[in-house]
Specification:
heterodimer; A: mainly beta; 6-stranded mixed β-sheet; 5-stranded antiparallel β-sheet; B: 0% helix
Chain lengths: 107, 116
């Protein structure tokens, strides 16, 4: 089946820093979504981005479907950005999640 | 608040028992998805319903079953529970739900199941 790999697995940054999270997938997909799981366990939609670039405040995402990767950019990190970031791909009526990137922002 | 509700928030039960988790989708959403999140397996897709019909199956065990009712709420039934079933169970909903016309999913707060 399709493999979804996220990197890095863990990231510790100082407040105010920028970061780039990567999601690679092994085959073509119908759609891709980025989520943030906060320390309380809630899964929050960030981007629904099968291709192209989207921006929402300090966050932006780019998916290059032909090269099978997506990037999530976080600028001017805040402590509330801490948590786990997942990408999920849609393929053949199934949704496959990566293992996530655990981000810890230090005050 | 995503608009998706799940009950109960926490559930503690013993091995061999059966439990039912409930999910109400966002208003207007026709698709409901169930996921299991455990420490060793990560987030896994279990099953999807669309407008009352099963649409897709993931890694759902035979001991587990689900249904979606005419009012579009869904229930996930877990039976003959084992210690390894302890996990966070999420429900999500979307407007529609085919891979080709999939819409973004919105997640509920989850039900934390502990099997002792």
């Amino acid at each position: 089946g399709i493999q979804v790999e996220q990197s890095p697995p863990d990231l510790i940054l100082q407040e105010g820093a920028n970061s780039t999270l990567r999601c690679n997938f092994s085959d073509s997909v119908n759609n891709l979504q980025w989520f943030h799981q906060n320390p309380w366990g809630q899964l929050i939609n960030l981007f629904y981005i099968p291709s192209g670039t989207k921006q929402n405040g300090r966050l932006s995402a780019t998916t290059v479907a032909t090269e099978r990767y997506s990037l999530l950019y976080i600028s001017s990190s805040q402590t509330t950005d801490s948590g786990v970031y997942f990408c999920a791909v849609y393929r053949d009526d199934k949704i496959i999640f990566g293992k996530g990137t655990r981000l810890h922002i230090l005050p | 608040d995503s608009g998706v509700t799940q009950t109960p928030k926490h559930l503690i039960t013993a091995t061999g028992q059966r439990v039912t988790l409930r999910c109400s989708p966002r208003s207007g959403d026709l698709s409901v998805y169930w996921y299991q999140q455990s420490l060793d397996q990560g987030l896994q897709f279990l099953i999807q319903y669309y407008n009352g019909e099963e649409r897709a199956k993931g890694n759902i065990l035979e001991r587990f079953s689900a249904q979606q009712f005419p009012d579009l709420h869904s229930e996930l039934n877990l039976s003959s529970l084992e210690l390894g079933d302890s996990a966070l169970y999420f429900c999500a909903s979307s407007l529609t739900g085919s891979a080709q016309n999939s819409y973004e999913q919105y997640f509920g707060p989850g039900t934390r199941l502990t099997v002792t």
